[in-house]
Design a protein that fits this description.
Layout (H helix, E strand, L loop, with lengths): L10 H16 L11 H31 L7 H18 L7 H10 L5 H4 L4 H11 L2
Helix pairs in contact: 2-3, 4-6
């Protein structure tokens, strides 16, 4: 599955964004650097991929509804706009760097894209961190 898309940031901007995220979250107890075992990496990747698939399924469902409601050819551009916005949102949301993975998974959990059962085999400290982000 290729989830890569246009990268809006160069390396310097990405580093600055990450530094700001770390600074903003460290005082709220959201930022902690975790070591990920190979097993946990597999579990986290599966949860991440399932969230991505669930979100894509919602987008497909919305597009099908939009298509069935089309009454004139110009309506096709509304679908294009919707897909473009969805892609942009997903590109900014799905970031699989271990440094921020608990934050990403927590946000996906808050949106209902990750379930408790998706992460239940991670270590308790990672589960707690993910759920802490999801509760915000």
């Amino acid at each position: 599955m290729d989830i890569s898309g246009p990268n809006e940031y160069n390396d310097e901007q990405a580093a600055l964004k990450l530094a700001n995220l770390c600074y903003a979250n460290e005082n709220r107890g959201l930022m902690k650097f975790f070591d990920w075992s190979n097993t946990e990496k597999i579990i986290a990747r599966q949860a991440y991929d399932r969230a991505y698939e669930r979100e894509c399924a919602k987008i497909m469902e919305n597009v099908r509804g939009m298509l069935s409601g089309m009454h004139n050819p110009k309506d096709i551009w509304e679908i294009y706009d919707y897909l473009r916005k969805s892609r942009r949102d997903m590109d900014s949301k799905y970031d699989y760097r271990y440094l921020i993975l608990t934050i990403v998974l927590g946000k996906l959990m808050r949106e209902g894209l990750i379930l408790d059962s998706d992460i239940e085999k991670l270590s308790q400290d990672k589960i707690d961190a993910i759920k802490r982000v999801a509760s915000i």
